[in-house]
Amino acid sequence: MRKILHIDMDAFYASVEQRDDPALRGKPVVVAWRGARSVVCAASYEARTFGVRSAMPAVRAERLCPQAVFVPPDFVRYKAVSRQVREIFLRHTDLVEPLSLDEAYLDVTAPKIASPSATATAQAIRAQIREETALTASAGVAPNKFLAKIASDWNKPDGLFVIKPAQVEAFLRPLPVSRIPGVGKVMEKKLAELGVATVGDLHAFAREELEARFGSFGARLHARARGVDERAVEPNQPVQSISAEDTFERDLLLHELEPAIVRIAEKAWQASRKTERIGHTVVLKLKTAQFRILTRSFTPEAPPATLQEFAAIALALRDRVDLDPSTRYRLVGVGLSGFREAEESAGQRELFSFETPAPAE
After folding, report:
1. Alpha-carbon separation of residue 109 from 91, 104, 326 (angstroms)
2. 146 and 185 in one domain?
3. Residues annotated as catalytic (active site), given as ranges
4. Which residues contact 314 (CB under 8 A, 6 or more apart)?
5. How many domains does the structure of the chain reveal?
6. CB 78 within 8 A of CB 101
7. What is the edge-to-edge ordering of all strands in the sheet holding 241-253?
8. Which of 121, 167, 238, 338 has CA 20 to 30 A from 311's CA?
9. pTM
């Protein structure tokens, strides 16, 4: 039986700003650049009471909370604090799987520092974070990652919640089925049509029936409804994708995007040079003025070897967008995915010659 923690820093970016500027404490702080094209990176708990949330347009946040204090993000500072927190995690276990700057899974089944329980380890970690960074973190303790992540959100902020193995079924059954990762509004509606509103409702369905309706995701639903999650905590996970994106000052037509695609491709390409792994698939992401998101991707026979090849594929992907020519776009992103070890890609340049593709969607 594993002992898994999910540690989640409370309103991380906003809390760092409030810590470093006492004048911001107790005030609704929104971490975002001002402007019609900006989105909220983080909101303090004071701002959240007005309905402000991460990823919403900054102009909407300003309407919801006119008295909010807007602070431009400082990711260099946030990364420095994240490294401090990571060092605290590593005192207790080498099995740390970061999910972002402000959250991580920890496997403390066999902790490096003797501890009477996983709960005691979580308490020690939270106390050290508070003492050394003057910030708070919430923690979930459970037998697996799925449950630990739910638990960490249960007593936020600055909280701790424990789900013991014997409590799993009783804890899960009353929860809305939307608490299962991957169950968004569309899937929630499909499940509602089957009379499924809670995890307990879902528990009544056989695995075969769920697989017949939802394929492999049906098998995952069946497992999660029973609190089963066999995923291990995986430290030092290899790079899977690298991308860059930008939101424009004004919405652009498709034929106007070439300079932006080339510029953003250069950012993504430079970032990809910092890893020894090789990306094989080029991805283009577009967001329309109506916030519809489109992606197009292409995997050439040999991975792009130069920025020019990378940008050429991204531009060819733009030509596969078939929306009305009058459609305007507010954001473009370019990325590489399908990363493999360098030796896996060796020799492909000799086997295949590169031509600018006519990529499929």
Report:
1. 14, 16, 57
2. no
3. 103
4. 261, 262, 265, 282, 284, 334
5. 4
6. yes
7. 241-253, 328-337, 281-288, 293-298
8. 238
9. 0.71
